[in-house]
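Example record

Each entry pairs one chain with its bound ligand, zinc ion.
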Amino acid sequence: MAAQMTDAHRRFLQMLMSRGIMEGSAARKAHRHCCEIYKVYYAHDKLDEFVGTINRHLQPLFMQVRKGMAEEDGSAHYALVNLAETEITKMASDYAENELELFRKTMDLIVFSENGYASSTEILNLADQLKTKKMKKKEAEQVLKVFVEDKWLSERNGEYTLHTRCIIEMEQYIISSYPDVARKCNICHSLAIQSQVCTSCGIRIHLPCVRKYFRAQTAPRCPHCNDVWSAEIP
Ligand SMILES: [Zn+2]
Ligand SMILES: [Zn+2]
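Structure tokens for the complex follow.
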């Protein structure tokens, strides 16, 4: 029998909606917390089932709680995904047209890059080329900051990549918008933005997946073409 949607499930969903994304450990804590408050059956290893119950009830609304992986460290994350919307409608209500254009162009830079990053200089150079309405560099800097705060981009030392939330929510959009460049990881089969590429056959593998997959191998070989894996194992 399928589990009932209880107040514990509803509370968990509210927490997820207000945060946008939850790290695995935060989600496990929230799971326990919600079950305890509403005196609902709790088992620490039943989070995915708990989420499955929520998802069955979200289905008619074209929404889904989706689990994804942070590309930096491989940790699990949960985000609420609206299956009926494209990237543009997801973000359209929150940003001006030229801000959306800057985001799309930033996404182009990141997806087309070798390593999954775009530098702030590259992005800020786009500001006065926007077709919708040009931006001053200062303005563009401010907009980038908001994209980071809103968890669409993440930044490290002046380099920008797509936030885990963005990848979980927009995976399908990115794969269909960049059919020639967007690739799935050969190991976990999720979209791979920050990844290593096989120099022989071109398959991509996430850095945490590289670490896990090649852990026991002294002379790593590509899982697809069996050629020597030339990138350094992180
Ligand atoms: Zn992977
Ligand atoms: Zn290969």
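The chain is about 45% helix and 15% strand.
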